[in-house]
User: Fold this.
Amino acid sequence: MNKVFPQGENGYTPAESKAHPGGEGDVPQSLPHFLVAHCGDPASWIYSDQKCDGTNNCGDCSDELSPVTVCPPCGPGWWRCPSTFFKYCDCIPRHLCRDHVQHCSDWSDEYACPGP
Assistant:
């Protein structure tokens, strides 16, 4: 698992961030460019396979949301909603639906989501 590097607001480091520090020129030269994806913060990058995986790897959701990334809509195992959890950006796993815990800011995970 990658260590946490980038700083968030007020110096807080996001617990689930997997982004690596460094600007555009700081990506390891030993890695082919197709293996690297830049985050919205130009000082951070992730591995390409972490892009559009449903998890907030960059710490600012830029690996999951436009305009930095164009990801397909939520897959069949996901529910689209404004998430209340830092780990998810625009979709949550359906297994979190109807579990009596708010995961979406509009509570749609408890009242509209059909569940797993």
Residues 24 and 42 are 6 Å apart (CA to CA). The mean pLDDT is 77. The longest strand covers residues 44-47.
